[in-house]
TrEMBL record:
GTP 2 binds at residues 214-221, 261-265, 326-329. Belongs to the TRAFAC class TrmE-Era-EngA-EngB-Septin-like GTPase superfamily. EngA (Der) GTPase family. This is GTPase Der. Pfam families: KH_dom-like, MMR_HSR1. Gene3D superfamilies: 3.30.300.20, P-loop containing nucleotide triphosphate hydrolases. The lineage of its organism: Bacteria, Pseudomonadati, Pseudomonadota, Alphaproteobacteria, Hyphomicrobiales. The keyword Kinase does not apply. It comes from Aquamicrobium zhengzhouense.
Length: 468
């Protein structure tokens, strides 16, 4: 189950710009040919990990003036009918104008959740408009800049909150399952021998690929330096790696490591010059390069939104995450903070329950051994494969004690489970009516797998398939 979003508001507030950003295109498709099918008005969109449909309401402002008000009203009402969630957009720079009130009066009649979006909020002059937006009685305005892509994490959070996490993430997990089934056929993956007990394909002689990611100033460059020593940074770029990125090879206690580094990090670390922030694209490249991604957090200001956004990205890309709470030397109340960080880590990142997290000081070099151990451990889990025999003996027990619920009076049947891939572990569950299986039960099975077969801290993929 996915959800549908309608973007409404008076002309010129930036609806099409937001639409394009969510749908990922330069221009909204404006098609006023009569008889355009309904489907063409709904476009798949993505906001970080959220996947949904957006109703395209672009173009209707062009109607001639006489019928404008009527058409806009009709369009808005139709879009609201079709949607599960309404993004009501105002222009924070212009403040609230009478047309906004006309639209908000229409919007308020729906019982559907509404997120109030204050667009064009990239400049300070939008503060007044932000305050005025409260007057619309549609709740807290979320400041964004559709044009510059700012505030998108807050928008994501507001959507999750308005719709309810259950609804939103049910949609997400299903999409993941589909991508496992469709986009990743078993090419290059060995299927476990049904009767073998343990299949340790782990090859510790291959270099382990690592990337350090995190907000600017979290201490990534300092950490890389601490690991490598200044002179090693001069290692040249390698063939096959993109031009502006570089990988550095080194050994850690006999283990070969390939570290993703960006030109920016090296320059900065060497001459402490102020450089522009690494772009999201740089971060994504680092994540895709790596097997294990170390999320470097500044322990004095941990779990800012951007940190969670990075963690989301790593999990979505199926990489093995490890958290390094850096600058631990600056912390006085260590026990207290540690307890708080543990609690927050579990609560904020339930998709990777049991994630390895270590405290370090890149500056003093404390905790680097521990961090490397955590990296290796997570890497092994990420590579883990469980034999089909073991999986199905486990499944049998689960089905006896906690069988799947009945849906519409019919019992859902699960036939067998098999692991179809590693890096991260991916499983296929063969069951009757995969689309009827409740997400809560799938989550229950995933958690059970995680605990029983010791796969803490890595993303686990679960796809459901009807028997052939
Ligand atoms: P719509 O009529 O509501 O669909 O609005 P558009 O998306 O066509 O935007 C109206 C105008 O506002 C265009 O000139 C956009 O470039 C501009 N605009 C949209 N979003 C922003 C923003 O975040 N900041 C600024 N400064 N301008 C924006
Ligand atoms: P980056 O932007 O993530 O690469 O961060 P940098 O490595 O440039 O570090 C940002 C600032 O934090 C610098 O002033 C570092 O000296 C400082 N820093 C990094 N690691 C530590 C640490 O473990 N302890 C302390 N006290 N400062 C640190």
């Amino acid at each position: 189950m996915s959800f549908t979003v309608a973007i409404i508001g008076r002309p010129n507030v930036g609806k099409s710009t937001l639409f394009n950003r969510l749908v990922g295109r330069k221009l909204a498709l404006v098609d006023d040919t009569p008889g355009v099918t309904r489907d063409r008005r709904v476009h798949p969109a993505r906001l970080y990990d959220l996947e949904f449909d957006v109703i395209d309401t672009a173009g209707f402002e062009d109607a001639d003036a006489a019928s404008l008000a009527g058409r806009m009203r009709a369009q808005t009402e139709t879009a609201m009918d079709e949607a599960d969630l309404i993004l009501f957009v105002v222009d924070a720079r212009a403040g609230v104008v009478p047309d906004d009130r006309t639209f908000s009066d229409i919007a308020r009649r729906t019982s559907k959740p509404i997120v109030l979006v204050a667009n064009k909020a990239e400049s300070r002059s939008s503060q007044g408009g932000m305050l005025e937006a409260w007057e619309l009685g549609l709740g807290e305005p979320i400041p964004i800049s559709a044009e510059h892509g700012e505030g998108m994490v807050d928008l994501r959070e507001a959507i999750v909150e308005a719709l309810g996490a259950e609804r939103v993430f049910a949609a997400e997990e299903e999409d993941e399952a589909v991508s496992l089934a469709v986009a990743e056929p078993l090419v290059g993956e060995d299927i476990a021998d049904p009767d073998s007990e343990v299949i340790p394909e782990y090859d510790a002689t291959k270099p382990l690929r690592i990337a350090m990611v995190g907000r600017p100033n979290a201490g990534k460059s300092t950490l890389i330096n601490a690991f490598l020593g200044e002179e090693r940074l001069l290692t040249g770029p390698e063939a096959g790696i993109t031009r502006d990125s570089i990988s550095v090879d080194w050994d850690w206690r006999g283990r070969r490591i390939k570290l993703f580094d960006t030109a920016g990090m090296r320059r900065k670390s060497r001459v402490q010059e102020k450089l522009e922030k690494l772009s999201v694209a740089d971060g994504l490249r680092a994540i895709r390069f790596a097997e294990v991604v170390v999320i470097v957090l500044d322990a004095t200001i941990p779990f800012e939104k951007q940190d969670l956004q990075i963690a989301d990205l790593i999990i979505r890309e199926g990489r093995a995450p490890v958290i390094a709470f850096n600058k631990w030397d600056l912390i006085d109340n260590r026990q207290e903070l540690l307890a708080e960080l543990r609690e927050k880590t579990q609560r904020l990142l339930p998709q990777v329950r049991g994630i390895q997290a270590v405290t370090i000081s890149a500056e003093t070099g404390k905790g680097l051994d521990k961090l490397m151990e955590a990296i290796e451990k997570t890497h092994r889990v990420w590579n883990r494969r469980v034999s089909t025999g073991k999986l199905n003996r486990w499944l049998e027990g689960v089905l006896t004690h906690h069988p799947p619920p009945a849906v519409a009076g019919r019992r859902l049947k699960i036939k067998y489970i098999t692991q179809v891939k590693t890096r991260p572990p991916g499983f296929v569950l063969s069951c009757s009516r995969p689309d009827a299986m409740p997400q809560s039960y799938i989550r229950y099975l995933t958690n059970g797998l995680r605990d029983t077969f010791e796969m803490p801290g890595v993303p686990i993929r679960m796809a459901l398939r009807a028997p052939d």
